Amino acid sequence: MQKLSRATLIFLIFLNGYVSLSLELAVLRQLSFYVGSSAVITSIIMATFLGFMSLGYFLGESSRVRDNKIRNILSFSFLIIAALSVAAASFPLVTVYFTMMYVGGITSGAIQTFIYSMIFLSVGPFLFGFNTTLLSRQLHSYNKNCTGNIMAWDTIGSVLGSIATTLILMPFIGVNYTVVLITILAVVGALILRRRWWMWIICVAILGASFYINSNVYQREKFGILVNNANSTISVSDYSGTRVLYMNGLPMSVYEPAAGNTAEYVNYINDNFIYNMPRDKKYKILVLGAGGFTLGLRDTHNEYTFVDIEHTLRDVSEKYFLNQTLSPNKKFIVADASQFLKNTSEKYDFILLDVYSNSYQVPESLITAQFMTRLKSRIADNGIITMNMVVDPMFTDKYTRVFDNTFRAVFPYNTTRQVIGYFNPYVSTQGPSNVIYIYYHIPNDGRIYTINKTPVIYDR
Question: Both 215 and 328 in a single domain?
Fold first, then answer.
């Protein structure tokens, strides 16, 4: 078999690095739909990826791998990587995996991720490391002092894979077609190394499966997916006249056009804070976490600013969820909630913070005292801040208690807490509910009544 040229070997090293990082990022994005993107989840995936890759580096040096067999081994390796890319990063197959996990009673996100990593993120990363070592052995036949060159091209591939995947491919062609591109690149590597007729047949079969499973048509028909980009997977379902907007696998907004009803907690805020606002002026209302734009949907008087990191949200909501255009008094800004608060000098009369999907997918930076202090700085005098939280009304879990402590550290006065929906304080297994935290930005000197000083009659 003809020896590979030096340029071809360098290209394959670059390609190997590119595909490895791109696949890792695609997997992280797809899994976030089910288990979030917390530090714990990310560390499990990265540790598995790097651990098996290191094992591949180590075993690639084995003397049992003869030099005259390396090219064939590499061709099969890239072929397996292409197939595993489809299995590990295609949304429909990931969905099947998590459905099986829940059916089997495994509900912990960390355990689900660990099992997933052992099944799907062991062989692929091992082969990435194995390939790098084998390609290095081939390149050393040209130059014994090319280790730095090898590491440089592998790293360049990884850097470009990271940048292209997150900044270009996922935002503009979607996660699904990013997975298809990863498969194509792995197949290219296999075909460069070996071009037998049966190899072409296998490659076409893998690519066909990747195109079919990851096509927009298939994912929309099978799962109702309208958007699948770097930030969000969005779908809209209709249940007998009640529409539900899903983002990353979770119901973000509910709308019943016939009755004008929305999600129960949004109905509560609309009825008690929005629709009964005085008409003496146009109040400035800020909504962090736009959802389906159902807050103040019927209000055409006050000025609304909706902020969300997902740029497609307004278009999807108007076309598929609300089936109507938002009124002119509502503007949409694509931005991170914390950065928006940092950069704006505007003060608002009413703020709704609605960026928490559930207790398993919490943007960790947005539950800190520092973020809440920034939020507090944007409320006008006599204004109101509301936060929709998914927590335990009974304070039975540590997360609920610590969040409550954090909230009250920043908002120690003029606060209340409203549980939405059914609540029985004597049932400890009730689980998390929508709980609205409310803060009234009015003067409070912090005085308390004591047995020694109780000027109640003057205060009243």
Answer: no
Label each residue of 281-347 as H, E or C. Answer: CCCEEEEECCCCCCCCCCCCCCEEEEEECCCCHHHHHHHHHCCCCCCCCEEEEECCHHHHHHHCCCC
pLDDT band at 35 (very low <50, low <70, confident <90, very high): confident
Q: What CATH number should be reported for the domain holding residue 270?
A: 3.40.50.150
| 441 in Cβ contact with 383 (< 8 Å) | yes
213, 299: one domain = no
Average pLDDT, integer, range 430-455? 89
- Does residue 152 sit in the same domain as residue 283? no
Give tens-digit pLDDT for 359-370: 556 677 888 999
CB-count exposure of residue 1 (10 Å: 0-12, 13-18, 19+): exposed
Q: What are phi and psi of 277, to 5 degrees?
A: -65, 140
| Residue 419: domain span | 261-440
Inside any domain, residue 293: yes
Asked whether the beta carbons of 350 and 273 are under 8 A apart, the reply is yes
pTM for the structure as a whole: 0.78
Q: Is residue 314 part of a domain?
A: yes
CA distance 54 to 214: 30
Q: Is the pLDDT assigned to residue 358 strictly greater than 60?
A: no
Tell whether 205 and 318 lie within a shared domain. Answer: no
CA dihedral 68, 123, 131, 214 (to 10 degrees): 110
Q: Compute φ and ψ for 60, nearest 5 degrees.
A: -65, -15
pLDDT single digits (tens) 139-158: 887 777 777 888 899 999 99
β-pairing verdict for 303-308 and 330-334: parallel
> Which tokens belong to 304?
């609304």
Q: 115: which 2 tokens? A: 């099992």
Contact 128, 122 (CB under 8 A): no
The C-alpha atoms of residue 38 and residue 51 are separated, in whole angstroms, by 20
Considering the domain architecture, whether residues 278 and 202 belong to the same structural domain is answered as: no
- Per the structure, the count of domains in the chain is 2
Q: Which two tokens stand for residue 245?
A: 């907007």
List C-alpha distances in Å: 11 to 79, 89, 312, 430: 17, 24, 36, 57
